[in-house]
Structure prediction request, 705 residues.
Amino acid sequence: MSSAMTATMTAQPLVSTDGKPLVAYHLVRWHIAAAVISLIISMSAGFLYSLQFLGYFPFVNNEILSPGHFRLIHTNMAAYGWLVNGFTAMCYYVIPRLTGYRVWSAKLGNLIFVVWQFILLATIGGLVMGKAQAIEWGETPTGFRPGSFEMNWVPVDLLVAVGAVLVIAQLMVPIFKARDQKFYVTLWYFTAGLIWLALTYLMGNIIPEWVLPGAAGAAVTGLFIHDLVGLYVTPMGWGLMYFFVPLILRKPIWSHSLSVIGFWALAFFYPLGGVHHFLISPIPDYVEFGAITTTIAIEVVVTTVVVNFFMTLRGKWSALRTNMAIRWFYAGAVMYFITCLQCSFHVTWMFQKIIHFTDWVVGHAHMIMYGTFTFWIFGVIDWLWPRIVKREWYSNRLRGWHFWLSTIGIVIMFTDLTISGLIVGFMQRELNPWSDMVMASIPFWWVRTFSGGMMITGLLCGAYNMWMTARSDREYVEDAHYIAVEAD
Amino acid sequence: MERFYTLAFVAGIGCFAVAFVLSFVFPWMTIDDYHGTQFVDWDQLAKTPSSSFIELSEDFPDEFTAAFPGGVNSENYKEALRLGRDLYIGQACWHCHSQYVRVVSNEMQRFGPPSNVQEYQNALNQPHLWGTRRVGPDLSREYGLRTNGWHIAHLIEPKDVVPYSIMPSYGFYFEENGAPKKEGFALVTYLQWIGSEYVRLDQEAKAKASASGEGGQ
Prediction:
């Protein structure tokens, strides 16, 4: 661990080389708050959308508040509201600590914060006005009519590109200043991940919309969906785990070699799997086979990383009981392994022909985005929030409710949607009438809505707890919460 | 290895570029050169207004003229297709209806012939709308299957036409008496267009085969 990281463990305020405070804590606080609010909006929208499947959607025959719009709000607020705000907050906290340099400018940070929240509002506005872009996971309005340059809304995509460039500049400055140091694993991921984010966003939002139609455009869309998850969310998530797990457990990561393998194999294999979102399609078969092979290779990469995380926990298993952040991290890591293992099977044509187009995929997406990456951010928030608002957690019981409602909720949802996907997939193959497939799904959709309700309740417990913590008058005492360091 | 420049240029840009070439540039070149596809632009797509567009103008003459001054012409037909596609995207129809038929899972029995590359090489498939989820059925072989009246009734209240449907109502695109507003005309025109490129290409190929005496059916 670097000296900056060790310094985190003392109650001393950290200062940069020029004597100013190292970390701009207000930016961490704001971005976390914005992230949690976005997640509440996203999950409420998802819950409302799920009611359409049951026939209880509240807004009937309403052009603005139609179910499709809630679906778009659900995914886009999860991606650009929750994950991006959350990861940016963590970067503001972690990068100055690992490099010893402040981010470029706190004022720029304020600007980025305002621009980013404006982007979210303009996105919600654009989506309900029907200005979505037809790119999955990138429905943020282009501001132009599809495939043309006739302006019809705020050009959100352009703002996102500008915002992303500002974020990258802001965070790359300390990394660049520290370029002669030996980087810790987290910084490998953050350096590459920030560059990947910019390239991925530009590629996915420009090519299918304005450059190429049909199958070639679909290949890029697949690459975009995949890279956004694999080259932004994954590196950020792994980077956070590599930083916070050793910090909280007070011991180094188990194997440096596995870290190196994990990073370079991610960089090489992960982006090659993009086309697997449109298998058995008019995209050339050799490209599909390449994507399938590399996707299976990713499972090997994931295994090295997960093994590394779990071997680090060896000898400290009791932390799962005593430390809530560790519990979130490792619950997330277990679900991560399950999802990735599932992926290496269902990416094959044998599974694809049955499960593609069904709820199986929906379950998979929720497990990875909620069960893993959201859990990891929750874990970081659990550890960080008392330290940045300088107050003790308001209620330990609510922390427990948040964890267990989320965990049980996502496990039920995943199991339910996986089974439903198999049933409907086989019904499709056996040429059952479409109405039969809908009828067969309805019980599963009830369970899905119920489990989603559990997850939202958990989140509201957590958010209320954060709010009351920030308002409480119980000062946070630093060292009280560290796990006792014992000789292994 | 794990230094700033290696991370930024080899991992950050290099690995991204390799993947970009392998999973985008290669398929694009294959589609373009090997399959010899031709891009069908707006002018070609809208040159001949479809029969369903003409029927709409005959069934709802007053509303049609109010929505599309000038009546049936290729300019109005193009605008209807575009607006219909805008609505299809904006209302996220493409998140519950796919637009490609695979060669597996008996989809050729259920929907029709499998998708080919050329049928997507046109302005209305930029951005493409393949979709990744089928809550409702695939739409790419719907061309010529249903009447305008079926589409209008179904969009106003899906349950009236398909009892078990869970599709939301899109009645706000239609007047009280069922006559379409401009959006309604556009949406029906677009829905009636989906799949027409496959049929056109198929007919052309058959005509060519029989003309050259190669055993056209």
